[in-house]
Design goal:
This protein has 7 helices and 10 strands. The protein has 261 residues and is of the alpha/beta class.
Length: 261
Amino acid sequence: MTPSAAMILLIDVGNTSTTLGLWDGVRVVKTGRVPTAERDARVVLGAVRRWLGRRKMADAVLSTVVPAVCPLWRKVCAALGARAPLDVNHRLKLGVMISYPRPASIGADRLANAAGAVARYGAPAIVVDFGTATTFDVISARRGYIGGIIAPGLALMFDYLAERTALLPHLHLHATRGRVGRSTAQAMQLGARWGYRGLTREILAELKRGLREQPVRLIATGGLAGRITRGARLRLTVDSDLTLFGLGRIYALNRSASEGT
């Protein structure tokens, strides 16, 4: 694709944020975010247009864990002059075999992570996506995508503490020094950060033991990946645009390969 050619819009709808990307046929060239809670098509369209600038869209691919927003994004794509987006699901060509009892129940974002991981790093691999929920997805060299783990996201820990206790405040993750909390807020920050690293380390160890394939590439993605893994000695490769890259790869394997854009 030449720089002047129309791009492919990548749409990854999460529970909290919707991540956008532009795909030039090989790589993700720009990223952005809009709140998933915004359901006014005119507002979303305006935000996307400002983000796109002068770039033109030819087509789109959509991954969502919030099915109710699909009509909104179809309207947005139509208003931008693009075809209805390619909806990611297990029936598409993904570049990775699916060995899972109920493939229709796998989240589209997890399929995109598996597709992106295999294309960039090969298999075996484990992808940890730090979002509203934290997902661990396991890709075997012999069996492809075999399943994973879903755990509460770090932000949910703060929400739960604030909602289920009378005196603890509602906090957001931020850096804090020290090894012993010298205030309620610091104690909560350290407990969440260290506890979450321990949770991540233990789940990865169990998954690696169960996979019985070596060496396993460990990849972290999602909005909190950098902050959670920094200094944690988890040996995770942080790949911030893995999900979007996976969407681009799925698009290339399905729509563009057969129809040409």
